[in-house]
Every structure is written in structure tokens, then in C-alpha cells.
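Hello, quick one for you while I still have it in my head. A protein chain has come my way and I'm curious about its shape. I'm sending you its amino acid sequence along with the C-alpha cells. I'd be grateful if you could look everything over and explain what you see. Here's the protein in full, and shout if anything looks odd to you:
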Amino acid sequence: MHNIALIAALEGTRHQVTTDWFAIMAMLKTRNMSDDAIEIVYNDLCAGLRVTTRGLTLAKAVEKPLTENIVK
């Protein structure tokens, strides 16, 4: 698994923070999540899906392409 930038939010709130996969993975392990389940979460995030687990909503942070600013 590679480290990826993530956006995380606590369920029930609108507050979001940026974090990384290694920090989230460590937190999920302390919450007794199995290695197989952690790998599924990682694969879903890499595929661009939003994942809700253990009281968190996670999404891969996506950088805006440079061409978006040029086209304006």
C-alpha cells in the first residue's frame, strides 16, 4: 500500500480535515479492524469511492488539474 492524501470527516459533522492513508490505517488498526477490511477500504479509496467506516467518512483528495485554470 502506498500513502495517499485523504479528506476525512467525522460522521454527523460537516467539518473536514486532510490527512493521509498511513494515519488513517493506524487509527483503523487501533479500532480492531481486520487487515482484510483495511485493504478493502484502501482499494475503494484508490478507485475514487467515498468510504464510511468506524465513524469516519473518507475520500481520496484530488488535485485540480492545471488545465482547469488555463481554460478559463
